Amino acid sequence: MTTYLRQARTSASQQVAPFTGEGAYHGSTRPRVEPLREAPAPPLVDELRPRTLEQYAAEGRRDIAEFEAVFPNHHAVVETLPIPTQEAIQSDGVSFCWCPIDDAIREAGPLTRSVLEAMRAHVGGGKRHVYIDSKIQYFAPGDVPVDSQHWHVDGSIVARDERARRLGHALLHDMRARLQAPALGPRYLAYQSSGHCATLFATAPVTLTLPELIPNFDELDRRVRALAPPAVAQPPGSIVRFDGLSLHRAVAATDAGWRLWVRCVETDRMVTPDASIIACYGKVYRTPT
């Protein structure tokens, strides 16, 4: 299982792809790169059970209803670390994709290791797995860290199966199940080294009408933007705590420079990433001129 990538980085070697807004590894319907070999499906856990879709399938329903979705938008800065130099970020060497936290601490470069050691003190416990994602990216002004700037939540409940296809979609996010399920969803800690490409977090509860099942985040983004909730950019050097009900989105870089991003995920889900994901995990996305 490949969960980390060790490589030297320069601004000239930064992977750049055209920005499409699709975000194939962020819940879109755009085809993914096929894995080198098919991994066995992990056991279904309550945290990811698509209860609404299960009900639709059991009742033979074909029309997707709407519901009142309430996003509490829990978000808090739990610690602020010294802002690293650009040289320290560039030379840190190792990035991670769904890597168990103990393995990540062992393999990390000095900057990322210091972040992970600080994060470990804020892990709440009670979940089966604690994983680390991280990226070391060089941005030109206007670059985006992921191929989407939509408002979204992390850890949505996604089904890619015949039940979704019967409703006319390749995949569906079960938003009602995420927002109203009894099982506690995933919890997150996130770090950003720099302020020139900072994630934007909604800071007040948001209530809106939303389809119970959505094929992507387009409709959620449109309705959140119409409400224009108060939001704040993550401060440089900070570690923030949020959860699977916290609306946030990526923004384009305002200046050139390196950024280290680290995310810690507490989840009951067992994840086995394939090489196609980690190979593209440090790309930046650029609007064609």
UniProtKB/TrEMBL annotation:
<feature type="compositionally biased region" description="Polar residues">
    <location>
        <begin position="1"/>
        <end position="17"/>
    </location>
</feature>
<feature type="region of interest" description="Disordered">
    <location>
        <begin position="1"/>
        <end position="36"/>
    </location>
</feature>
<protein>
    <recommendedName>
        <fullName>Phytanoyl-CoA dioxygenase (PhyH)</fullName>
    </recommendedName>
</protein>
